[in-house]
Design a protein that fits this description.
There is one protein chain. The protein is of the alpha/beta class. It has helices at about 5-15, 20-35, 80-90, 110-120, 135-145, 160-165, 170-185, 210-220, 270-275, 305-310, 310-325; strands at about 50, 95-100, 125-130, 150-155, 195-200, 225-230, 250-255, 260, 275-280, 285, 300. The strands form two sheets. It has a nine-stranded mixed sheet with strand order 6-5-4-3-2-1-9-10-11, sandwiched between helices. The chain has a two-stranded antiparallel sheet with strand order 7-8. β3, α5 and β4 form a beta-alpha-beta unit. The termini are close together.
């Protein structure tokens, strides 16, 4: 299947209002001006925001701090009242809302209530799940909530391969959950959510690339996509995860034989201008690579969202990115600019 999907794209376009289009124009132009000047200029509010429903997870994936229970920050659940208060402040400008950072979103009992709230504000909503909680009832409620995009992580087509990365997971539950969503989309005559299997290509599963395409067709998902895997210690790769197929690897060897990130580290970052991430307890961090919230740019418990977006911490971080991005730890493994291979 091609990357471009007409129905999903038209759905996203339908979320644009004059206020959101005007805001997007301001954000994009300020980013381009910043690159020309070599110093940050920031206009508008984020086009996209990620909210973390929870840090809890039922699996133990080896490259995930949530799965490995390695957080130094507390584990908890996003409260619906806090979420709604924040959305009320920024929904007129906000186009795209991602219900994911760390953890499994469906573990938060109020998750679909929050999706519904954002949907009612006309925001495009997306989430990523390991699909172990997509029971028949939850699948129906998911479709009814108005969720626009559902990413189902499925990293193997047989249990023995799947569990090598998705430690503690059951492939049969993932497939059952996906079938439930497809069933309820048809039953409710709904075009949403747009459902795709996301296949994180690692060495143990790279031989199943063709098989996952076939499984996607059998289950009836809208698309199958392939994603490069982030490996923290990519120089040594202790878990032997980096695939041998070059196009599915986030890394390459330089002239000296040292393994490096393919995308390079230019002194700019579109993420810092158009998006941000909010943890379950209100901390604002630059992007999804700051998994343990070490770079806290604000706290929505003490500042409004709009105040945070323009505060001194944000200005300093954007300046630091433009001066020497390679010296910022969370940028060392960044995949911005890398194509996510899709079929």
């Amino acid at each position: 299947m091609p990357y471009f999907n007409l129905n999903d794209s038209l759905n996203l376009i339908s979320k644009f209002t004059f206020a959101r289009l005007w805001n997007a124009g301001k954000v994009w132009s300020s980013y381009r001006i910043s690159r020309m000047l070599g110093k940050p200029v920031q206009w508008g509010l984020p086009i996209s925001v990620s909210f973390e429903p929870t840090t809890s997870c039922n699996l133990r994936c080896p490259e995930c701090p949530s799965g490995m229970r390695e957080f130094t920050r507390p584990t908890g659940m996003l409260e619906s009242s806090f979420f709604k208060k924040t959305i009320d402040e920024i929904y007129k400008e906000l186009l795209y809302l991602i219900f994911y950072f760390q953890g499994e979103p469906y573990l938060n009992p109020a998750f679909l209530e929050m999706v519904q709230y954002a949907h009612d504000k006309g925001i495009y909503t997306a989430t990523s799940t390991n699909a172990h909680y997509l029971t028949d009832e939850k699948a129906r409620k998911t479709v009814e909530s108005g969720l626009d995009r559902l990413i189902i992580s499925i990293d193997g087509t047989t249990q023995d391969v799947y569990q090598q990365y998705r430690v503690g997971g059951k492939l049969e539950k993932v497939i059952e959950g996906a079938r439930n969503i497809v069933k309820w989309k048809k039953a409710l005559n709904s075009k949403t959510p747009f459902v795709f299997f996301q296949f994180l290509v690692v060495k143990p599963n790279e031989h199943q690339i063709e098989a996952i395409k076939q499984l996607g067709k059998e289950v009836g998902v809208d698309q199958v996509r392939f994603k490069t895997a982030q490996v923290y210690d990519f120089e040594n790769d202790p878990n032997q995860l980096i695939p041998s197929i070059d196009k599915y690897s986030r890394y390459k060897k330089d002239k000296s034989g040292k393994r490096v990130v393919k995308s390079g580290l230019g002194n700019h970052c579109w993420k810092l201008w158009h998006a941000n991430v909010i943890t379950w307890d209100g901390l604002v961090v630059p992007c999804c690579f700051d998994k343990d919230a070490q770079h806290q740019l604000g706290n929505l418990a003490t500042q409004s969202f709009k105040e945070t977006w323009q505060n001194e911490n944000y200005k300093q971080f954007r300046s630091a990115i433009m001066q020497s991005r390679k010296n910022i730890d969370i940028c060392a493994n960044c995949s911005e600019g890398l194509k996510v291979w899709e079929d």
